[in-house]
Amino acid sequence: MRSFQCGILALCLLSAPVVFPPAARGDVLKVTGFAVGSQTVSLVSPSPFVSRNIHAGVFNLNPPAGILAYCIDIFQTIGFGTLYSDYTTTSLATDAQITAARKGEIAQLFHGFYTTSLTGSTNTAAFQLALWEILFETGSTLNVDGGDLANRGVTYAKSPNTPAGVVLLADTWLGGLGSFSTDLGGFTTYRSPAHQDQISYRPVPEPPTWALVFAGLGTLGFMARRRRRS
């Protein structure tokens, strides 16, 4: 069984859209591997992660079947192929461990760049770094290369093991968060008292889509009634 620092990561994608956020419940979880590869990054803060190299990328989970997950916890560990039964599943909106401001930034990151993050190892590593920066930054500036040294929460060395392209992409995405929605629909967090916490996302259908569906059903019902009367 391969064990990884919590820095290893995870983000969850469910294959079918959902309308209502899931209620909190006990659940089982297993990480089966990286979905689109990973990149090695060098954490330089916070303690005890100084100069520690970890793998960053999106995880496959099964169970839950068909889910991708990004890490939201760098202080605990998780292993590949181990079935864990101590997780609590809830919506991001009701997750009390993340502030409202950070929830909005997480939503913006996913709405803007989640799909792109699943296209290769550089993108998935950049997305994970950006997500950690949002979650653990202690100041007002979001960047992953230590530029805001006075207020840094989690930052990543450009060398020796963090590819420059990963750092640049993560900072570019963080700089563009304001263009995207803060809607919290479709997000699920997985919390464990002893193992790495994770987050998943499956997009909620846009209201116009559902309006068309309901309008179509109404039309079918009207036509069926007319046929019965004729």
The oligomeric state is single chain
Could you name the ranges where pLDDT drops below 50 across 5 or more consecutive residues? 1-24
Average pLDDT: 81
H/E series, N to C? EEEEEEEEEEHHEHEEH
Q: What percentage of residues falls in helices of 4 or more residues?
A: 25-40%
Helices, strands, pairings?
Layout: E1 3-5, E2 11-12, E3 25-29, E4 31-34, E5 39-45, E6 52-56, E7 59-61, E8 67-71, E9 77-79, E10 84-91, H1 100-117, H2 121-136, E11 155-157, H3 164-175, E12 187-191, E13 198-201, H4 207-229
Helix pairs in contact: 1-2, 2-3
Describe what you observe in this structure.
The protein has helices at 100-117, 121-136, 164-175, 207-229, and strands at residues 3-5, 11-12, 25-29, 31-34, 39-45, 52-56, 59-61, 67-71, 77-79, 84-91, 155-157, 187-191, 198-201. The protein has 230 residues and is an alpha+beta fold. The strands form three sheets. Strands 2, 3, 4, 7, 8, 10, 12 and 13 form an eight-stranded mixed sheet that branches. Strands 6-5-11 form a three-stranded antiparallel sheet. A two-stranded antiparallel ribbon has the order 1-9. The longest helix has 23 residues, at 207-229. The N and C termini lie far apart (68 Å). Residues 1-24 have low confidence and may be disordered.
